Amino acid sequence: MTNVMSILLMGVFALIFLTLYGRIVYIQATGEIEGVELDEWADEKRTNTLSLDAERGRILDRTGMVLAYNQPTYRLYAIIDKNYSSHSAEPLHVTDPESTARQLAPLLNMEEKDVLSIFQKGLENGRFQVEFGNSGSQLTAEKKEEIEALGLPGIYFIRETRRFYPNGPLASHLIGFTQNQQEQEEGVMGIEKTYNEQLVGKDGFITYKHDKYAFKLLNPEEIVQKPENGADIYLTIDQKIQTFLEDAMTQVEEEYEPEQMMAIVMDPKTGKILAMANRPTFDPNERKNIVNWYNDVISHPIEPGSTMKIFTLAAAIDAGVYNGEDTYQSGSYKISENAQTIHDHRREGWGVITYNEGVQRSSNVGFAKLVWEKLGTEEFLEYLHAFHFDQKTGIDIDGERTGTLLYRYPIEKVTTAFGQGTTVTAIQLMKAATAIANDGKMMKPYVVEEIVDPEHGEILKQNKPVVAGEPIRAETARAVKDLLETVITSEHGTGRPYRLEDYTVAGKTGTAQIPDPESGGYMTGKENYIFSFLGMAPKEDPELMMYVAVKQPNLSPQEYGPEPVSYIFKTVMENSLHYLNVNPDKENTGTVSDAFVMPDYTGKTVQELKDVLESQNIKTAVIGNGDTIQKVIPEKGTDLYSGSFAFILTDGEPVMPDLTGWSLRQVLMFGELFQLKIEHMGNGYVVKQNIPGGNKIQNNQYLIIQLEPPGADETESGENIDKEGQDEEAEASVQAQ
């Protein structure tokens, strides 16, 4: 029995041995286990593949200033497995967790005990390496160098990138931002989203053979596929003009705390957007407390108020039915016996006035009569279509919406004439207004100048001006500009607060009512409006056009609405036109003058030049107590106009002049002369300065000035005009009988 069992067991073991041996022979012969090729499996285990991230393309303004780029950052990790140091004379792992934790903690803004806890838990769990969460990620190059200077063994870094916006909130809704989606940077809004495909590029990789400790083999069979970096996108935005706009809007935001603001600056000859901003805004680097995710300039339709009268006027003139000297009874108007009553903002009106005066006073009755009695509602609708108020502008960025032409009933057709009921976006208004500024040619707006391959400098795409239509004739456009200038210059004009110091302006104010969902009507109260202005300058041949809208500002008892809007418009337009070297076209009287070419008076006497300039009605400021001219600003060859300003720098010691009565532009010119850092408060002319007159001037000093509007008489007159102009639709322009 024992022999039988022994033989049986030997047979079983022999069978098992033969089976295993056969399996080994089979594996050796085929190189395969359960369908897995062993050579491939081993090759895969010995091969390390690292991704080489493509650099996301930059976003730049039209001058090459960088608005968004990838900034290198570093993620910290520590190797705690002592086996990693087995083939090295120097330790490659963390040898002293306590000392390492003590030195690392202050540089990571962590508690020493928390860093030590990370090391201890990693060792207890047999981990090869540990990381330090948010405290150890997105470290700057400076922080990395600080940590490396400690010479701690086992401490390493992985290079990463983060999207950085060097100007913070500047043009944030337009530029947008990115966030990581499945380990890839994706644009979330704005240019970052619209052009994500062009910006991301194509990742590369590197592969090599290694041992179990991740060290390269002697023959690593390395393969490198270089990444293809994303394209650079150059915008039409000008950072300088955008900064003018952002600073002005920030000041208004701080002073008036409006519910909402939007503004846009455009070159009307090309359709290029030079600046675009919204409030509330946000910092794309932080992305905290984002109240509004939409670019309101292109995506928020509003009732435009009296800015719509620009296009009603253009339609009437172009159709040949406008006679500015014709008269009508202002105050109120009914298109039929049973229709609702249309009121002017001054409900009793101004008596019998001409249509030209009605344009200046922004009379709702005058524009209602133009459409109902002279032009006709159907022909007016054709012009609205020609101005593309029924369609998107086609601007080259995602998120555009259109307003709605409310044009079903007779009263809606008439109220559209003065901007009530019908809604439009700011970009629709600006596109349509290019036809006024550009001799009847309506330009398609765009924000991307070109897309460039950064490695080879090849232009992948370049946008050019596109004429989107010609809704009116050139002579019509010129006639409309002439009339819109009187809105600014006339004693009756609602646009008097928008006068510029050096340039003529054509434009139209707007005071749009805000629908009240609870009552089904409109909100009441002097602050519950969208105050706006659409203007272009210089009037004869506009180089810039701008739209500003401020919703529900907190006004003082003496203010009536145009104050915040006019501050933004005047500050941005005046500074931008000078920045673009557009010659002033305006004397003190507001008429165009002949240019005087600045001569070269270097080395001559101060009095000699003063006599010449004063004979041309050019004001001078002498800097220094010498008699001989060292330098003159503006320089020789510059065109100057009556009322212009020139600085004469003498060979004496330069001292600070008394700046009282100087304009902001004059102070900025002075600051450039001596590299002063200018900060200003208020609007108007200098009343205070932090550096007293007579003090020695030092380069890079801070010069702080306080500005205030002109004297009491002019202010009082302006307030009366403002009060009259602020209510263009305010007094419930359409009321039930």
UniProtKB/TrEMBL annotation:
The keyword Membrane applies. Pfam families: PASTA (PF03793), PBP_dimer (PF03717), Transpeptidase (PF00905). It is found in: Membrane. Its EC number is 3.4.16.4. GO terms for biological process: cell wall organization; peptidoglycan biosynthetic process. CDD domains: PASTA_Pbp2x-like_1, PASTA_Pbp2x-like_2. This is serine-type D-Ala-D-Ala carboxypeptidase.
